[in-house]
Amino acid sequence: MSTARAIAAAVRSGERSAREVTEAALADVDARDDTIHAFLTVLRDEALAEADAVDATVAAGGDPGPLAGVPIALKDNLCTRGIVTTCGSKILDGWRPPYDATVVELLRRAGGVALGKTNMDEFAMGSSTENSAFGPTRNPHDTDKVPGGSSGGSAAAVAAGFAALSLGSDTGGSIRQPAALCGVVGMKPTYGRVSRYGLVAFASSLDQIGPFARTVEDAALLYDVMAGHDPLDSTSLPVDAPSTLETLEHGVEGIRVGVCGDLIDGCAPDVRARVQQAAEALSAAGAKVEEVSVPEFAFGLSAYYLIAPAEASSNLARYDGVRYGLRIDAEDAATMNTATRTAGFGDEVKRRIMLGTYALSAGYYDAYYAQAQRVRTLVMQAFDRAYTSFDVLLGATAPSTAFGIGELVDDPMAMYMNDICTIPSNLAGHPAVSVPFGTGDDGLPIGVQVLAPALAEALLLRVARVLESAAPTGGSQ
Amino acid sequence: MSTEWETVIGLEVHCELQTVTKLFCGCRNAFGDEPNTNICPVCLGLPGSLPVINGQAVELAMRIGVALHCEILPSTFSRKNYFYPDQAKDYQISQYDKPINLNGWLELPDGFRVGVTRAHMEEDTGKLTHVGQGGRINSAHHALVDYNRSGVPLVEIVSEPDIRSAAHARAYASELRGILVATGASDGRMEEGSMRVDANVSVRPKGSTEFGTRCEIKNLNSLRSLVRAIEYEAARQIALIESGDRIAQETRHWDEAAGRTDSMRSKEEANDYRYFPEPDLVPLVPDEAWQERVRAAMGPMPADRRSGLVAALGGTATEAESDQVRAVVDLGLDALVSAAAAAGAPASLALARAANEVASGGDAGLALSPDTFATLIGMEAGGQLSATQSKAVLGELLTAGGGDPVALAKQMGFEALGADTLVAVVGDVVAAHPDEWARYKDGDDKLTGFFTGEVMKATKGQANGKEVAAELRKLRG
């Protein structure tokens, strides 16, 4: 599949029809997604209808928008009107939202074509997409490996070429880590930059929607369409989002890059080497590259695994069998609640609900939840300190290349460690991006991560664009 | 020996705010509509939905704070987590550790001051209807939920445990009700649940400074229930303690028909609500200008309006007049009295008519124009209408929803009786009742009423009672 930019340009000029693009994409999904399992729902009729509408606009001399006819895959925690939205969980069995998420509406308005809903770890809890109630997604680069998670389906859909673009959500790394493992670009915007209205909540203070793409330019294109204030989300920032596309090619001359050992040292040797190589590439492109130490990042993981489950324990309370989704009938409401939740949630979700409930309980709140919030403040202050000397930070995205399906399922702690480099940005609410940068010793993709201060998406993507153009194409080293 | 006991009472009053829309969404805030018609993804707590605060609700909450002499502070919302089918999200968004209004007081008409701990904002739940044999929770076989009330804005006003008698509790609730109506925050209708009162009741030996164990009494649907429940509960607690038992801290349900409180749940069964800051909302910081606008837009409170009426009475009021002043202000009829007094009519007469005849006319009294009322009272005071005629005209005005008292009096045949006719009729009545006249002449003044009544009969109420009495005195010599 071509890039989103190329497709949109061709569709807008009338050179290709959106229907033709969509039909090709659907045929490709039909042919290959049995193996990869990126999609939970393929929106065949709906996608063709949207494509036809785009074509009609073009035929009438109108402009369908910057995403004209571009097939886009949506993580299945984004609400789509009348279309089953599962969050990878049995508990939402058959639930069809009566409304579209704000981002879904924005994509449609920009001419995008929603191709389908992608697989994910249940309620976005996981780093491998193996926690989906509907079976795992496989990494298109090696189908014995995981695609990462929790937005594994969206990462795989782009990596496999099913869709030019996809949307994921990133609570602790759920866009960037699968992007790294699947060899695509994945970006988490500033918290509040993209509306969360219609994103089924995992951890409300950390969740953020972001783009997957095969190129930085495509990621910027999709981000630009989504960014901006939404009155339906009280945490949406009431500021204009400047275009990132316009400044994308401005380079990194004079940009101060902090190579952050705390986001590198714990990683596999091949990952460390690639990050080093990326630092050199930025230096070669004119950036001022220096090492920086932010030891507070080490506490991020522990804080995250208290704050996120605490919020999740409350956010997921509503799945009680009363109003929608699964219901296991019983003689009274309380027994029905328990039976429904016991049957409807998977192990990892239950584990986090219990963890979060405990962290918020009377007598434990101060020691766990409140303490974790203090650590969060500490991490934010550490970022602020680092950004007095640097414009962006550079580190690894994930500690290793993609691991094998089944390899970590029985070791939750090892699985949680996958988020160690990505979590600090979520705690601080800052933007960060993973850019493919060569492969590891096993020939699988490696991503390097660029981190920037709040609202600095334009700079973030400029740096990512330089890395992309300098990325090694061959094997390891 | 017997201990003298003191009852200690604190009241928690939930007041539904009369906003156009709900607290966090655009649904209509209306009582009595078809079930589940005023609902949307937000107040149904559908996955992906997010709350947005209603400015009108904030404004009404601030008005309540101003009226109760509270500090108005920057505030935050928290989540109160508990499972219940009427709770759409299985948590309630409520202000917890940082409420909008703190540290106020309310002065009762007798001058007693009750501390107001806080007055905070929260959302209401849906409404459960238990369907089954008895319609009671324990005999129901299923329940229906109406979410029209879900998300309706509430302000909860918590008093200090300053109240020492059921009568004072009643006075507090009644005064608070008047304030809530005067601020425009509420219609104050206890029977429709727009104002709900819970009472925390404990007893202690008189003179003790320590509080006894308290019970919270729910389901108080009228001021009468409030008084009865407190009296019952205090007696129950005293009897328990005197028989050597201990009071269990618990929530108790007032059974109006049986006239007793029953245990609902004990402290041990009480929920751990796991409060934590609501991550979907940002802090609420009403700036000075907004607060000023709110203060400036507020009319006088009931206490000021009572003072105004007493001033119109000449600065003092008899006990009966004080009761009338309270009743008239409670019912919002004080504008009638003020208008009549301003037009030069005796305030005491206007007050009596407003507190009796107008008050018994229900809502019709609120529709009566102050000018019309003032004209009528002027006619009565000036002797153009007798008391009986004046009441009859007033009755017509209330039934018809207004009118011209002068024209109406004419139409009803209430021409003032000529002086000669009056003298003649009085003479006839005296002649017809020689025994009574003899007793009256001997000084039995009680017979004034008898003769006046006879004259009224003879003139079909057209005579002026005062003039009749004067004529009788003249005849007696």
List keywords for this structure.
heterodimer; A: 11-stranded mixed beta sheet; globular; B: 477 residues; alpha+beta; Arc Repressor Mutant, subunit A; 3 domains; 9-stranded mixed beta sheet; 3-stranded antiparallel beta sheet; 19% strand; elongated
Structure in words:
The complex is a heterodimer of chains A (477) and B (477). By secondary structure, chain A is of the alpha/beta class. Chain A has a single domain, classed as Amidase signature (AS) domain (Amidase signature (AS) enzymes, Alpha-Beta Complex). Chain A contains 15 helices and eleven strands. An eleven-stranded mixed beta sheet of chain A has the order 1-3-2-4-6-5-10-11-9-7-8, sandwiched between helices. In chain A, 64% of the residues are buried. The mean pLDDT of chain A is 97. Chain B has 477 residues and is α+β, with helices and mostly antiparallel strands. Chain B contains 16 helices and 14 strands. In chain B, the strands form three sheets. In chain B, strands 2-5-6-9-1-10-11-12-13 form a nine-stranded mixed beta sheet, with helices on one face. In chain B, strands 4-3-14 form a three-stranded antiparallel beta sheet, with no helix packed on it. A two-stranded antiparallel sheet of chain B has the order 7-8. In chain B, α7 (334-342) packs antiparallel against α8. The longest helix of chain B has 20 residues, at 223-242. The mean pLDDT of chain B is 92. The chains are: A alpha/beta (477), B alpha+beta (477). Chain A binds chain B through residues 77-79, 85, 87, 92, 95, 97-99, 101, 196-201, 203-205, 231-235, 310-311, 313-314, 317-318, 320, 322-324, 333-334, 337, 357, 360-362, 365, 369, and chain B through 41, 44-53, 79, 81, 83-85, 88-91, 143, 145, 272, 274-276, 279-282.
